[in-house]
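Handout, section B. The chain below has 562 residues.
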Amino acid sequence: MTEFCRLDEAVARHVREGDALHVILGHSRWSALVREIARQHWQRPSRFTLIMASLSSLGAVLFRSGCLEKVVTVYSGDSFPVFTPNPVFQQAYADGTVEVENWSFLSYIQGLRAAATGVPAVVTGSVRDSSMADNPGYAEVDTPFGRVGLVAPLTPDVAIVHAAVADRQGNLAIAPPMFEGSIGAFAARRGVLATVEKVVDDLRPWAPFVRVPAHRVLAVVEAPFGAHPGGVFPGTEGARLPVEGYAEDVEFWIAAREASRSADFDGWIREWILLDHDTYLAKLGKPRLDRLTRTLGQPTPPTGRGEHTGPVTRPERAATWLAALVRSRIAETGADGVLAGAGLANLAAWAAVEQAKADGHDVALAAELGLWDYTPTPGDPFIFSFANFPSSSMLLDTEQALGNLVNGPATRSIACVGAAEIDRQGNINTTRIEGGPYLVGSGGGNDVVTGADETYVVGTMSPRRFIENCSYVTSPGARVRAVVTDLGVLTRRDGELVLTAIAPGPEPLAERVEHVRSRCGWDLAVADDLSELPEVTAGDVQQLRKYDREGLFLGDGRKGTA
């Protein structure tokens, strides 16, 4: 039977040295149980394997605790205020303190599904032709139905989740969107440890929200605000769980990011993380917690960096041209959906879909968290903002959004992504630099670049980004149609990127072409039918700036970078 107990009891009784611990993120992205694991295993060589899709800034807490031996993940970086590598992960991976196994979102979930369904492998359409194909848990085999990629079971010992509500039997209810879903609860060998906002007598009135049955749950801890600094979305109006819910504490996320870069990160952890839950809530204070409850569903609050004004920036030039290109492709192909990675690519996709809808095209925005056909919130550049949830026509999970919709044969889809490195074949690297730092990993990039009907890449042009060959291929370039930069557009022709459109300027065309070629790490070919892009004006970028008013992603290195 499910045990109802305190946080310290749940961890002490059910977490063992050497365990593989799976943190189920959902839309909440954190759990008081993770803090308690860090507290009980601080400075202990507990040899845990952490299975966690998106580590974000607070994942660095477990790295600093010394209890980790290995990480199986999709994204090792920060999320607020911008998407960036994190030095704690970079150092641990570089010196071998923590081993990392990288996957894409879909292949990660498919590994959990293999474990949950008790089969030796699950078929995947992702990973092929990327460097992740070298993972020991991936293989390609010839079958009577064609050559397929297979992902081996990814089996945790214990899964950890923050659910909105539990009943007295231990059934767990969570409102969508669900990110990786609840599949890890069925993959775990021993079962699930859960924190919840509250326990109710009967969940049958909310049966559509019950995601984990009681027989899979080892222990339930009633821990209000147990997802902090993540939030809890209780559902949309008319389909809502019996809890208030609360917004993400972006101020805390940013503080965690800054702390992870400080000389006294351990001191910050002792101050904020290695606390019992009641002390933690008291330290946050009731006014702060009340504000998070009150602001649920509102735009993410500004970071205080000031309004982004002034001349058009290099990222804005690239994003404006990408938005125009995607808008035209929606019209030409009758695309059903557009999915974009976070940051600059996302803002360009938002602008493109908004313009295409104004043109009369029925096209949906998708987000890998599990959003389909949502409307972005002005003033809020964060793709996973809770403010976007109620506007979605469907709230799903990653496997449904990426696997069934964006990558499925029944949907005509366009993908917009960024790249830390891109080579002449269009291969993308967002994982690690040869002889240099670890970046962040695939996220859903490999899945959408591999599965979408066509992919567009956006970024400012430099020899450091545009290189001869990617030493690590996060996403293969076969379906990359074009790369849109601040200096021009590179289109994939006969398997190689060539310059097909150039930015306007007062200099003679030959000089502008040579400047573009000087910013490229290979001998860039120039198309015979080279065209000139339109000038980008302040008026053109207002649509972008209405979403990113602080210039976190649109700024030119002054306030933040994508």
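Note. The longest strand covers residues 158-167. Compare this with the example in section A.
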